[in-house]
Amino acid sequence: MDWWRTAVVYQVYIRSFADANGDGDGDIAGIRSRLPYLRDLGVDAIWITPWYPSPMADGGYDVADYRAIDPRFGRLEDARGLLADAHALGLKVMIDIVPNHTSSEHRWFREALAASHGSASRARYHFRDGRGPGSAEPPNNWRSVFGGPAWTEAPEDGASPRQWYLHLFDETQPDLNWDNPEVRAEFESILEFWLDIGVDGFRIDVASFLLKAPGLPDLPERSEAISRAEDPASWDPAAHPYENVGGLHEIYRRWHAIAQRHGAVFCGEVHLPPAFTARYLRSDELHTAFNFDFALRPWDAGAFRQSIDATLASCSAVGAPPTWVLGNHDLPRPVYRYGRPGAVPANDGWNAWGRIEPSDRGRGLARARAAALLYLALPGSAYIYQGDELGLPEVLDLPDEARRDPTFRRSGGSDVGRDGTRIPMPWSGDQPPFGFGPPGSRPWLPQPADWRELSVEAEAGRPGSTLELYRAALRIRRDDPGLAAGSFRWLASPASTLLFGRGGGFACAVNLSTEPMPLPSGARVILASARVGSDHILAPDSAAWLVLDGAGTEATWPS
Ligand code: GLC
């Protein structure tokens, strides 16, 4: 079985994971020092967010040089050392590749600004004259995912009129022109560069955005990416001018061939409904893609069930493994999301956070723990975002001056942005930096003083801690290969609960109702997110892994 079909992948947000040199930013040496922690946690692979030289306007997703390491994170030698260490521990390493845009500090973009209109240098990006008198209006109506227009006027260059350049994210992240063969060739060479160094795969940033429809047509009013959450039915991914443009498949077929030669894999950040995502998962394209459909579901049995069914059906149609995701560096922490009352949507759009809503931390934690047992029991691969294994809450009260996410600035403060999910990890000790960096160092984002109880040191070995729940779940999953790859079947259960079997008698029960859920008779509890008493009742907002008496469960999900 290919490792990536069932792998549990741990996402390392490098800047916030572990800071060995005390400069406030996490680094490669920090990751190396914590690899034994990850091995003991029981994951199979790590995905490291961008480590390339970057002005950090968007946390490293603004890459200035794709073939080097940012000095704040280390050197290429450190990256080689990390790969060697990880491989020695049996861990695979995936890195982030950011092909949709470069940093405005990238050599290509500097050249483009210095070059004339219509030049080969400008043709690597999307430069256009503006609309209206004096070219004063942006060339089309596209909006930046981070707020504001997706176009910025290039600085004065003596020519008239000035041109505009496209950036679907921050103005420091100009979009590359993927119709340009030079851009394609460059990224194929970048993939080879890192494959030669020994990475095991790539997570592809905004994988469905690279190509733009010819002529860069306006977005029809109702189909803007951000209107998806308001009215998903009106959003047609087949008719979008910059998302899911058909020719993308050809690009990924070429990438697939490159990865194949090195035995490496891809995971695409594809924000599309499952049926559309699956088209990127055909056997000669991407190996896997993030399951945002699942990650964005509210705490609701019907919603989860629908997402699980849609995911399994669309992945099985193309023979690809599903992935299951609860969080990442762009999404509010599960503890916050699931702690909100009722079935509120988990997220208000792409990365958009919008306003902070009231959320009950205790309820959120109970549900996040139950969700952990739910998603780790599903067939396929699973992603753990650093800190979710500790049950970290979202940090909601960051002072404005501490916020770094460009979303905050570009939305004029109406969207608080993603910093609250990126707070540096608490490892040990009683006060900040909680072992994230050496004593006295100042993490790049402030940590809450009350994270003492949530550190790895505090949770390790503490019965019932979230860390121990994850460790136990991953141990069981590892010991029972049928759990990741085996059969899947829904079993009858009370309203607003979920119960499914995974073959060999293994079953997972999740109680999303407000009533206690009686467990099937004869079920033996092997792990639970909250105590199950001798009455065999599963409390609301909790989940349990069971071994069922008798015949076990039939296979309906292909291995
Ligand atoms: C992806 C990344 C996000 C980044 C954006 C632009 O969504 O996960 O952090 O801001 O792409 O690169």
Layout of helices and strands, plus pairs?
Layout: E1 8-12, H1 28-41, E2 45-48, H2 76-88, E3 92-97, H3 107-114, E4 127-129, E5 151-153, E6 163-166, H4 181-197, E7 201-204, H5 248-262, E8 265-268, H6 274-277, E9 288-289, H7 292-295, H8 301-318, E10 323-325, H9 334-337, H10 361-376, E11 381-385, H11 406-410, H12 456-459, H13 466-479, H14 481-485, E12 489-490, E13 497-501, E14 506-511, E15 517-518, E16 524-528, E17 537-538, E18 542-547
Parallel strand pairs: 1-2, 1-11, 2-3, 3-7, 7-8, 8-9, 10-11
Antiparallel strand pairs: 4-6, 5-6, 12-13, 13-14, 14-18, 15-17, 16-18
Your description of this structure?
The chain is of the alpha/beta class and 559 residues long. Helix content is 25%, strand content 13%. It has helices at residues 28-41, 76-88, 107-114, 181-197, 248-262, 274-277, 292-295, 301-318, 334-337, 361-376, 406-410, 456-459, 466-479, 481-485, and strands spanning 8-12, 45-48, 92-97, 127-129, 151-153, 163-166, 201-204, 265-268, 288-289, 323-325, 381-385, 489-490, 497-501, 506-511, 517-518, 524-528, 537-538, 542-547. The strands form four sheets. An eight-stranded parallel sheet has the order 9-8-7-3-2-1-11-10. Strands 12-13-14-18-16 form a five-stranded antiparallel sheet. Strands 4-6-5 form a three-stranded antiparallel sheet, with no helix packed on it. It starts with 7 loop residues before the first strand and ends in a 12-residue tail after the last strand. Residues 223-227, 346-352 and 551-559 have low confidence and may be disordered. Bound molecules: alpha-D-glucopyranose. Residues 58, 61, 98, 169, 205-206, 269, 329-330, 351 line the site of alpha-D-glucopyranose. Alpha-D-glucopyranose binds next to loops.
